């Protein structure tokens, strides 16, 4: 089964209940891939969703719980773990770390800085459109 990390921008788009990001969320619920995340990423998603128009604290918390319950949590790094410092924006490094330490096949994002990297230690970085095409139709 494919293993993937979804960037915060994908979750924000999925919260709009339409489009390719929401389709990707449906694919996750349907068991088409394993989603990997970390507490650091979940916290960022929750904080970001709280600032969306129409999102309350309770709704953001519900998404936090829903994402967490449909994900495999990658343990926090130990003090001896190698830190990833590759992205122009250091806030993006947590996605590469989660993908690497969680042995993901893919990191899915719309962030151009991440997409330009294309591959990091055998983790392929794709747009949601490319990942959905890769998943194909359910059999």
Summary, kept brief:
Helix content is 47%, strand content 14%.
Topology of this protein?
Layout: E1 3-6, H1 8-14, H2 19-29, E2 34-37, H3 39-50, H4 57-69, E3 71-73, H5 93-101, E4 106-108, H6 112-117, E5 119-120, E6 123-126, H7 128-135
Helix pairs in contact: 1-2, 1-3, 2-7, 3-4
Word description of this protein:
With 139 residues, this protein is an alpha/beta fold. The protein contains 7 helices and 6 strands. Strands 3-2-1-4-6-5 form a 6-stranded mixed β-sheet. The longest helix has 13 residues. The protein is globular. The two termini are 14 Å apart. The mean pLDDT is 88.
Integer average pLDDT: 88
Which stretches are low in confidence, meaning pLDDT under 50 for 5 or more residues running?
none
Tell me how many strands there are.
6
Gyration radius over CA: 14 Å
**Major beta sheet, strand line-up:** 3-2-1-4-6-5
- Going by helix content, strand content and strand pairing, the class is alpha/beta
* Distance linking N and C termini: 14 Å
Instruction: Describe the sheet with the most strands.
Output: 6 strands, mixed
Helix content: 40-55%
User: Percent of residues in beta strands?
Assistant: 5-15%
Q: Helical region count?
A: 7
Order of helices and strands: EHHEHHEHEHEEH
Tertiary shape: globular
């Amino acid at each position: 089964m494919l293993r993937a990390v979804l960037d915060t921008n994908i979750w924000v788009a999925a919260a709009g209940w339409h489009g390719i990001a929401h389709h990707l969320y449906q694919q996750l619920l349907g068991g088409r891939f394993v989603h990997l995340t970390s507490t650091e990423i979940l916290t960022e998603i929750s904080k970001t969703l709280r600032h969306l128009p129409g999102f309350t604290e309770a709704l953001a918390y519900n998404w936090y719980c829903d994402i967490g319950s449909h994900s495999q949590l990658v343990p926090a790094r130990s003090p001896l773990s190698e830190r990833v410092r590759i992205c122009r924006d250091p806030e993006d490094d947590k996605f590469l770390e989660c993908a690497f330490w969680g042995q993901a096949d893919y990191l899915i994002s719309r962030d151009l800085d991440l997409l330009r990297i294309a591959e990091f230690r055998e983790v392929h970085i794709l747009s949601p459109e490319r990942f959905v095409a890769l998943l194909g139709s359910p059999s």
